[in-house]
Design a protein that fits this description.
By secondary structure, the chain is an alpha/beta fold. The chain has one domain (2-205): P-loop containing nucleotide triphosphate hydrolases (Rossmann fold, 3-Layer(aba) Sandwich), CATH 3.40.50.300. It is built from 6 helices and 7 strands, in the order ββαββααβαβαβα. Strands 1, 2, 3, 4, 5, 6 and 7 form a 7-stranded mixed β-sheet that branches. The longest helix has 40 residues, at 167-206. The model has no long low-confidence stretch (mean pLDDT 89). The protein binds guanosine-5'-diphosphate and magnesium ion. Residues 26-27, 45, 69 line the site of magnesium ion (MG).
Length: 208
Amino acid sequence: MSGDSELGFTEHLFKVLVIGDHKVGKTSFVKRFVKNQFYEELKTTIGVDFSMKVIDWDSHTRVRFQLWDIAGQERVRGLNRVYFKGSSGAFVVYDVTNRSTLDGALNWKHELDGQVMLKNGCPIPAVLLANKCDETKVWNASLLEKLCQEKGFIGWFQTSAKENINVDEAAKFLVKHILQNNEESEKEEEQNMQLNLQQQSKSNSTCC
Ligand SMILES: Nc1nc2c(ncn2[C@@H]2O[C@H](COP(=O)(O)OP(=O)(O)O)[C@@H](O)[C@H]2O)c(=O)[nH]1
Ligand SMILES: [Mg+2]
């Protein structure tokens, strides 16, 4: 969603999902990104929590990031179709200290791709976050690289919501891709409109 002002200033509102298994640090990631805070103890998310972060991308582009922090249990409840609708991008989070959450992240990605896509039929941009990297080093970087290619992630970052590692970097990376997609789809729409107009004027001129 975007709006242009007369001065060429554009504001975008992007819905971005934060998904992954329970306790991998989704809420912590959002709180670090939005408020630059970290809490050792957090209440379990129930259903979905919303947060907003405004980023002045450049002198003529403002991005409103609407983050949907979805409870890990929601995959089981099958409500994701409702939550995923209209999203422009996603962070898919796993916990580097818990291997099974990487499988969980891949299942979340699979479900995401089955339920939401861009207008051109491509998957929405998703970044894989290897969170809690303050606890242990990511030893399987080449595996993650391979998984990203196989499963269609646009990239991966090792992050720590606790130590504030790569949180803004991952977000900027995702914004960049969302903006690119947005630009491409706007161009496509414009081209389609011009084609329609050309066809209309052709059929008008051949009439009678
Ligand atoms: N060491 C460490 N702990 C984290 C990090 N992110 C979250 N946690 C902890 O992991 C637990 C679960 O975090 P939470 O954000 O509630 O996970 P969620 O269920 O995915 O939303 C909490 O005790 C957090 O303090 C991190 O980057 N490093
Ligand atoms: Mg949570």
